[in-house]
Amino acid sequence: MTTADVHTLTGAYTLDAVTDLERAAFTRHLAECSVCEGEVAEFRATAAKLGLAMTTAPAARLRSRVLTEITATRQLPPSITTGPRPRRWRKRVTVAMAAVAAAAALLAGGIGIGALQSPSTPSVQVALPAPDVVTLGAPGDPGGSAKVTFSRQRGEAVIATDALPALDGGHAYQVWLIGRRGAQSAGLLHSGSGTVTAALPSDVDRIGITTEPATGSPQPTTPAVVRLPIS
């Protein structure tokens, strides 16, 4: 379990050093935060400059050496199959081409890869990064907001808060995972904008955020400032 200010993820996001859920949550945050958007653009420009700074020009003789090797290296002849190809092979090619065309048409129409899967293709499902990821949001009381991005398949959740009212040094926001077994702490936020990443038990059907002492509480002691049903 980790807790971090969402605004500090700009560098990790730029270098692709975040989890799939953190990436999904930060991407949504990025659309609403011009400061982070500017930092990401600056980080990307810096990374590009660093990459260019490390490049070196090839030796002048390299081109001539490559051309010499090409003329001296025997090339293998193409493999030619004589006679008509089996009908089964042609059928497979036709089906494959049709599948590619259908996938391209669906993607062009705005349907994601996850929507193309079915229970009959488990190996493809496993290869996809959490196809069941869902993001939900709710306003804070008396201000700010929070979002949860979660995957039941992976059993993970990222809770991100934005502009919740500032607290004094003796208090913090505590995130709770609430289900049939009661409330369990997912982490503390010491500012109004931050993220908490937590394992998501299968019985949890809502997220709550309360104001607690800075060191946290074993159970909620105040009314929730944010309620996020995820059932």
TrEMBL record:
BP terms from Gene Ontology: regulation of translation
Transmembrane segments: 95-116
Its membrane topology: Single-pass membrane protein
Domain of life: Bacteria
GO terms of molecular function: sigma factor antagonist activity
Presence of keyword Manganese: no
UniProt-recorded name of the protein: Regulator of SigK
Protein source organism: Amycolatopsis camponoti
Domain Anti-sigma K factor RskA C-terminal residues, every copy: 98-223
A single Gene Ontology CC term: plasma membrane
Main location: membrane
Region entry Disordered, spans: 210-231
